[in-house]
Amino acid sequence: MKTRRKVLKSAGAFVGTLVVGRVFVSAAGGAEAPTRSEIISAIGCTLLPANGERGGYQLLEGHGINEEVSNKLRAIRDEDLLAFNSGAAAAVGEKDFVKQDEQKRAAYLKTIVSKNLADPKIAAVSERVYRAARVAVFTTYYQNFPEVITRDASGQPMTIAGDTHQILNPNTKKLWTGWDQAGFSGTWRWPEEEARRKELRRIAKTVAPGFQRFEA
Amino acid sequence: MNNDYDVVIAGAGAAGCILAARLAEHGKNPRTGQPLRIAMMEAGPYLGQGENRPGVGHPTRRQANTFLNYEMGSRYLWPSGMAKVVGGSTMHWGTYGVTSSVFFDDDYSAWRDCTGVDWTKGDFADAVKETQELWNLKPAPEEVLTRGNKLFIDAGRALNLPVERFAVARKNCLFCGRCGAGHFCKYDAKSSSQHNIDRALQLGVEIIPECEVEKVVFEKNGARPAARGLQVRRNGNVEVIRGSKVIVSCGIIGTPSLLLRSGYGASDKVTAPRVAENVNVGRNFESDSLVPVAAIWDEPIKSGTGSSTGASYIRQDYGNNGEGRLIMQDYQMSALTYPHEAALSVFAPAFGGEHEQYMRTATQRIGGLYPFIGKTGVLGEVSATGSVTVDQNQPSVARLLKWREQATALCHEVLTKMGATMVDTPARQTYIGMSNTHAAGTCRAGEDPKTSVINSNFESHDIDDLLICDASAVPRQQQYGAMSTVTVAHYAWRRIVRRHFA
Q1: pLDDT of amino acid B356
Q2: Cα dist from B123 to B133, B155, B195, B490, whole Å
Q3: Contact in structure between B146 and B334 (CB atoms under 8 Å)
């Protein structure tokens, strides 16, 4: 996390310094601005809202998705995130992005997407933040976070004990992940492979010339 | 390890492995009559340990390819993107051959017109047959075609376009749909250099992995220089592996950059004391051009499993004599679309519930066409460091940009006929980028040293005992890379054995 640095002044807002996780401000009302983590979390929850059992971004926050996404967004400056956050007040009313409800947050993102923000500087910054966050969130979620391949010390995926040919499949179904949302099953497990091999051998017996060999 | 061989080969890619196996099998030392002592060096690792089971694959390669981290593994790649592993790019290529005969008739004439090389279709007949049989170059069975593959065939025919079935090089393929260029096959179904590696090892070839060739070693041989071996770095140590003949097979970029670093090439390009001058080393880099056109349908056009190869193509020639050859391929009508790719596609809603709804079926509904344009005439140069530069002001660039517009328009027409709900329009191109993986020409064969580096026998015009055989030897690019390189290597070993090792 960054050390002390100055936050840019923005019209009618606040000045302060962003220290580890907190912003201390001297704005009217003395309100504290949110942390990077809070802003990114709010964006993630808006991009991937919860839907009953499909907990979306929020469900996976307990598994570290916000840290993963925040790491991908480390090139985004603090002041840009804060400008994005405060831009919501002018666009959708009164409160900044983090403090808005889900509907207002979504309305703010739609305003950004449709390029309808009044202040061109805020619009440019907000669009940049939105686009980078969208890529980071969707890439992380739809690459099946948090399930990963178990690897050995040299980085090679580990195999199932006693089987040199089959690696451990991470898609455990204990969580609703991006793959579940997309109906994507990942790599075949052994029974699926065997069924497919059987099917291809059947085709090989009936198809005439022009087909790839299928050896037993 | 012995340090003195009949043949040393730099690079265990497609061509290197073919030459190693075939020279070991058919060649003999002309003085002693004994089998050739051959060593082949490769900078990358050898992923070959363990039992290979047809349709199941090889443990090391199954583990190397998980399908889950969306990349082959940068440890197995050069910075140029070419494979850095024993077996070379054929270990992870897309297996596309276009036509079962490997080359079209106008490919042979294009080579001869370019440099005067004496290669003919008749000469290549045995080499083409060897490719067809050993690499199993055939179309995929009808049973594995997706709905999208079939839509392409029907649309092409309805538009009176010449639709042909695509040849692919696979064995024991499960058509899992989880492959494409850049991925090892979990089941070893991609025809690859593996059978040549196995054969070479059986015949006593020493394959030396994780051994980077730093220079070709040259010595004076009367009035001309001669190649005498390879300076290599292995386990942190530098040594010279000597050979009576040196074959360089490091690929379209690796070969010219190695030669330039060894002092062979144009004076202003070599980075070592000049051994011999030939301005063509590293020049004449010609590749194909691709701007994919994506589309989406309301209903699934891919199955959960698919052919993952593309099934058919439409050919159009935008120039004369096969120049500007468009091969419009339906690869994206059956290849896998990963969830994160669908999530960030141009067709995806912005976010929220609409995006979630879209994602339920998007991976099965997104497709498109790949319009490769080959024989572009746009030429680049490879430097000693392996960088490729293309002069954007050459006249063929403007010509290629026009061809691209025509190809994009044709893709739109076909995709619309296929019933696509939306077709993406790529941004208008004003710049030509070159793919490294389908290129040719950087040490091309020909009759005149003014326009070529090697003669029709793959021998350097300028340096004795130096031979070159890989994509760099091919005078003109056609489509894709591996089948062309493989077939030229199948041709090369025959001439090399006749000339040097009979």
Answers
A1: 94
A2: 17, 38, 24, 11
A3: yes
Give pLDDT, residue B228.
Answer: 97
**B301 near B365, Cβ under 8 Å?**
yes
Give the Cα separation of B334 and B345 in Å (integer). Answer: 17
B362 touches chain A (CB under 8 A): yes
Residue keyed to tokens 């995709």:
B415
B249/B2 Cα distance (integer angstroms): 21
Chain A residues 76-135 within an 8 A CB cutoff of chain B: 106, 109-110, 113, 134-135
Q: Do B351 and A51 touch (CB under 8 A)?
A: no
Contact indicator for A17, A24 with CB cutoff of 8 Å: yes
Beta bridge partners of B327: B315, B372
DSSP class of residue B141?
P
Residue B382 confidence class, pLDDT cut points 50, 70, 90? very high
Per the listing, tokens 């910075």 go with B79
CA angle A129, A133, A135 (to 5 degrees): 125
Alpha helix segments (H runs only) across chain A: 36-47, 56-61, 65-72, 78-88, 102-113, 120-142, 178-182, 190-206
pLDDT of residue B306: 54
Query: Which single residue is written with the structure tokens 């912005």?
Result: B350
Report the alpha-carbon distance of residue B217 to residue B227 in Å, rounded.
6
> Between residues B223 and B463, which one has the greater pLDDT?
B463
Pick the residue of A138, A169, A176, A196 with the most B CBs within 10 A to test the interface with B by mutation: A138
Mutate to test the interface with B, among A184, A192, A215 (most CBs of B within 10 A): A184
Query: How many Å apart are CA B261 and CA B247, to the nearest integer?
Result: 16
Distance CA B112, CA B467 (A): 20
Q: How confident is the model over A3-29, as pLDDT tens digits? A: 333 232 233 333 333 333 444 333 334
Helix (H, G, I), strand (E, B) or coil at B406: helix
Cβ neighbours of A207 in B, within 8 Å = 141-143
Contact criterion met (CB below 8 Å) for B464 and B264: no
> In the prediction, which pLDDT does B169 show?
87
Longest CA pairwise span in chain A (Å): 81
Mutate to test the interface with A, among B71, B134, B174 (most CBs of A within 10 A): B174
The answer to whether B56 contacts chain A (CB < 8 Å) is yes
Does any CB of chain A come closer than 8 Å to the CB of residue B173? yes
- Nearest-CA distance from B184 to chain A in Å? 13
pLDDT above 70: percentage of residues in chain B = 92
Confidence check on the interface: ipTM exceeds 0.95, yes or no = no
pLDDT tens-digit map of B331-371: 889 888 889 999 999 999 999 999 999 999 999 999 999 99
Return the residue of A nearest to B359 by Cα. A182
Task: Sort strands B38-41 and B4-10 into parallel, antiparallel or unpaired.
Answer: parallel
